[in-house]
Design a protein that fits this description.
The structure is a single chain. The protein is built from 4 helices and no strands. The chain is mostly helical. It has one domain. It is a multi-pass membrane protein. This is TLC domain-containing protein. It is found in: Membrane.
Length: 132
């Protein structure tokens, strides 16, 4: 495995972005809410900050390099834009997993979903560098 992949990674930046988004929701936007709902609302805000850009970046990634959906090739190496989408999603799933492990450890199914998603995303990005 080539460790140079980690040097040009946007993963730390995206992780800080999601920490900031969560804190903004928890301490500013939802500061007057009940603590239980406040943390859930902050997690939902973080989810919104993930889902919308991920959708747009994924569509751009497909349109930029493919003429049609039928021509998608998951065996070709990831492009820089595809790696950006993967790192954006890895940072989100990592931060939301942390939220669930700390605040809602009884939600085993959701935690398992996040662990499985992180496994797929990180292997596509850092281990195989393909499959986006």
């Amino acid at each position: 495995m080539d460790f140079l992949i980690f040097y040009d990674s946007h993963l730390p930046l995206f992780t800080v972005w999601f920490i900031f988004t969560y804190m903004l929701g928890y301490f500013v936007i939802f500061k007057n809410w009940n603590n239980k709902y406040r943390s859930e609302a902050a997690s939902c805000l973080m989810s919104l900050a993930h889902g919308t850009p991920a959708l747009v970046l994924s569509i751009l990634s497909i349109l930029q390099f493919q003429n049609s959906i039928a021509q998608l090739d998951f065996t070709s190496p990831n492009t820089a834009l595809q790696n950006l989408v993967l790192e954006h999603s890895i940072a989100y799933f990592f931060m939301d997993l942390f939220h669930y492990i700390v605040l809602i450890p009884s939600d085993v199914l959701f935690i398992a979903h996040h662990v499985a998603s992180l496994y797929v995303l990180t292997t596509c990005r850092y281990l195989f560098d393909m499959g986006q």
